[in-house]
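DATA SHEET
Item: assembly model
Revision: 1
Owner: S.N.
Input lines:
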Amino acid sequence: MSDHPLDEALRLAPLDVGRFSGRTTPEYWNMGGPFGGVTAALVLKAVLDHPERRGRPVAQTVNFCAAVGEGPFEIAARLVRDGRSTQHWQVEMTQEGRGTVTTGSVVTGAERQTWAHAAAAPPQLPPPDAVPQMDTAGRNAWLSQYEFRVLEGRTDFQLEPPGEIASAASRLWVRDRPERPLDYAALAALADTFIVRILLVRGYFVPVATVSLSTYFLADEAALARQGARPLLGLADARAFRHGFADQSAELWADNGTLLAVSHQVTWYRD
Amino acid sequence: MSDHPLDEALRLAPLDVGRFSGRTTPEYWNMGGPFGGVTAALVLKAVLDHPERRGRPVAQTVNFCAAVGEGPFEIAARLVRDGRSTQHWQVEMTQEGRGTVTTGSVVTGAERQTWAHAAAAPPQLPPPDAVPQMDTAGRNAWLSQYEFRVLEGRTDFQLEPPGEIASAASRLWVRDRPERPLDYAALAALADTFIVRILLVRGYFVPVATVSLSTYFLADEAALARQGARPLLGLADARAFRHGFADQSAELWADNGTLLAVSHQVTWYRD
């Protein structure tokens, strides 16, 4: 049995303590480089695979410094601070001839049971089966690695301006395709599956890129195991587009109403 | 005329290219270390003061690795990637005997005029003059360096649980005290003035700390200049508190309705 394409894309071979080699895979190719969610998952995986890592992911920031090229890369995780309740990590991804293409920071934390409170609740959505799958044929490869069932938010983009401004908000069900039990690396990638909001708002293709992405993991291992391979409820929106940059925020909810992760990014656009 | 206390706290003496020394000041002292917003502003200032820096701040992430002690510190900014539209920076703050206490990443970008769209709008609030100032006497020093005019959100915390769960949301006017014209460093600090949400929700003091903070700057220099020293409209909320960690998000709006910055953080709490 061959590996899931995500595990294939996240395969890291150790070169030294905390230093790994990997390579991009065609399944997750985007426009001019690999899907940023896989890069985020690789940053996380370099930490998870480090022998000194303790605890589960709490937060990660990924800075997309330069386009990642097709082919091999190296990724190195360094433990900056080993505290009682958290570990702080720095990660750097490099490619021969390109230098540093991605930097990241990751915080891991001990699993603890504490006082808990759900300040926010997910919206009521029809069940996944009641929502048709988005057609990803003929689009950037990575889109076909996910099953999107979209209830709100434009999913088709024109080559010319449609002349109307639309909402930046999306509500959808999303999961890996083929199905795969949820883990933190998959969750890190899913957090970046929310298409750059300016495409929804303007309705046509303009050059875009994610500049920096921060994801907070609010679930323990048990919550991910409970969710398994079923679709997650995803919400995304943006607040402002100005001076060539925009923000966007996303939430990923388990289908039992537990918030698994929140993710924020700043995106670059031209024109 | 003496400097504004914020400029005093942000004073950096160059040691080498991109390496500076500074020291904590009592005015911005918090419970067990300096106010995190000043640390965030120092991370930004180390980049802004670097001779190779081009463009204005777009994004910053600050990881609070360990408590910053009273006294001197060093802070170093390193240009990781110098791209056409963005520069990517890594910053590290160290203290003798404590090692690395803070890490950060900063993205700067060229000032550009592009298509713009305000997807979100601020709520209508009564003008600052109509809202009484929060009394900060007898509380952690840094609170007195800001003028808070709070319309929504608990501001007084008990030593014992009041037994009621309150909302995590705040709406307020906020600015530096004494007044100071807005700039990016001040904005970076203001983004962290939203008290850790668990205190609002539970209503009493539990040990808390910000783990990681990311702020996106959506305004150009001209927008900051237009705002000047007048109060900003601040909004903050949180989504989930679980397993000893919680998220929170904040928005800072100019009084003309322009979104100046959004900020997200993950916080640690005990019990």
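QC remark: The CA atoms of residues 251 and 262 of chain A lie 4 Å apart.
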